[in-house]
């Protein structure tokens, strides 16, 4: 238990270049997750993110087997997953069933690919739960380039996307291309999800993509405030998770999920207290107001 709170060892490890690289990667990932998260929550895409992460895991496993950059494989798998989910689930009634089918297929193929991989077991385990030593300069460069691309695209489509997320029927009636917007946003989410595989791992990437945004939407319905809070919560979870994982040498994802869930519990308590003071029930997730 003493290792969990070894401040001296933690400070010493923070001086290593690979740790600083991982912290920068976590900060970039936290920014992406915080910006995309409120839109994911308002569009009820949490399950879709999980399905996308499974195919990003499959792509990463294929890259590991072929001896190429895991980040490239995870990115390719996530983009394919986003396109498949967007094309197969045109109707909302079949959305969850399509995601479930794709998720199961992706996880099964990924497990098979890892079984074929003859290398170290730690590399296999790292794909599932994250491994900061796998974040090298090439991975950081890929992460930075993809993050800039995602944020630029999101900046262009944000207003119509927010409108379509809050009130899709009215947005469609007013000429907003809800279908293409949904597909583009699914790809953006897929890219961000894939970028989290090496840091957080495929199984627990939801801890960054969903939980901070869900916590922010608990305490505010303003889209700007929700985004700012989600970014802050995601940064604390991602960077804090790495810092706390250093001394024990434990998987990063365990600490990221614990921190993000604690933040969610605090926001849930605040939301519940506000609801009691006002004498009304507090909704499970606030929905930002749509731009007109």
Automatic annotation (TrEMBL):
Entry GO CC: ATP-binding cassette (ABC) transporter complex
SUPFAM superfamilies named in the record: ABC transporter involved in vitamin B12 uptake, BtuC (SSF81345)
GO biological process: transmembrane transport
Compartments it resides in: Cell membrane; Membrane
Tagged with keyword Transmembrane: yes
Keywords (A to Z) from UniProt: ATP-binding, Helicase, Hydrolase, Membrane, Nucleotide-binding, Transmembrane, Transmembrane helix, Transport
Protein's membrane topology: Multi-pass membrane protein
Record's keyword annotation contains Transmembrane: yes
One Pfam family cited in the UniProt record for this chain: ABC-3
Single Gene Ontology MF annotation: helicase activity
Family according to the record: Belongs to the ABC-3 integral membrane protein family.
Name of the protein this chain belongs to: Helicase
Organism: Actinophytocola xanthii
């Amino acid at each position: 238990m003493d290792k969990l709170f070894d401040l001296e060892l933690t400070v010493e490890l923070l001086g290593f270049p690979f740790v600083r690289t991982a912290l920068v990667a976590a900060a970039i990932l936290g920014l992406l997750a915080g910006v995309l998260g409120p839109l994911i929550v308002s569009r009820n895409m949490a399950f879709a993110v999980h399905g996308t992460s499974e195919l990003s895991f499959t792509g990463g496993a294929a890259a590991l087997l072929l001896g190429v950059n895991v980040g490239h494989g995870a990115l390719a798998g996530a983009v394919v997953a986003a396109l498949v989910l967007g094309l197969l689930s045109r109707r909302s009634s079949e959305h969850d069933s399509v995601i479930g089918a794709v998720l199961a297929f992706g996880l099964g193929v990924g497990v098979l690919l890892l079984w074929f991989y003859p290398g170290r077991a730690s590399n296999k385990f790292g794909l599932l739960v994250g491994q900061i030593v796998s974040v090298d300069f090439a991975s950081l460069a890929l992460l930075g380039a993809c993050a800039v691309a995602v944020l630029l695209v999101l900046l262009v489509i944000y207003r119509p996307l927010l409108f379509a997320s809050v009130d899709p029927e009215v947005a469609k009636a007013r000429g907003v291309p809800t279908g293409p917007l949904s597909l583009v946003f699914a790809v953006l989410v897929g890219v961000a999800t894939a970028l989290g595989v090496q840091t957080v791992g495929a199984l627990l990437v939801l801890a960054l993509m969903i939980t901070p945004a869900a916590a922010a939407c608990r305490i505010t319905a303003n889209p700007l405030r929700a985004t700012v809070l989600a970014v802050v919560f995601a940064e604390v979870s991602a960077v804090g998770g790495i810092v706390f994982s250093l001394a024990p040498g434990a998987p990063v994802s365990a600490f990221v999920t614990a921190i993000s869930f604690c933040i969610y519990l605090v926001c849930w308590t605040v939301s519940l207290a506000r609801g009691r003071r006002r004498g009304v029930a507090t909704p499970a997730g606030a929905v930002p107001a749509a731009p007109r």
